[in-house]
Amino acid sequence: MFIFKRFQAIFILIAGLFSAPAMASIFSYITESTGTPSNATYTYVIERWDPETSGILNPCYGWPVCYVTENHKHTVNG
To answer: Which residues contact 27 (CB under 8 A, 6 or more apart)?
Structure first.
């Protein structure tokens, strides 16, 4: 049992070495909001998408579908 746990930990560590995080910096602003605060729909404009460095791989390359999530902050502290 101990050998299996050690093998599993080593496998996860090696797999983590080959995974690359993806991140982009964007500046966007809301042009319109409708609905209630608990169920609002926003229309927004992405003003700028900062370029990535050349060493960062595209995480969507080769995939038939790729999803992007945009999160936001209300203040600098979150």
So the answer is: 46, 47, 48
- Ramachandran angles phi, psi of 31, nearest 5°: -100, -25
- For 2-40, write each residue's pLDDT tens digit: 666 777 877 777 766 665 555 566 777 888 888 887 888
In a domain, 42, yes or no: yes
Cβ–Cβ < 8 Å for 46, 28: yes
Q: Give the DSSP letter string of 28-68.
A: EEEEEEEEETTEEEEEEEEEEEPPPPTT---TTTT-S----
Please indicate, yes or no, if residue 31 is contained in any of the structural domains. yes
Does residue 41 belong to any structural domain of this protein? yes
Query: Whole-model pTM above 0.90?
Result: no
* Half-sphere exposure in the Cβ direction for 37 (13 Å, CA): 0
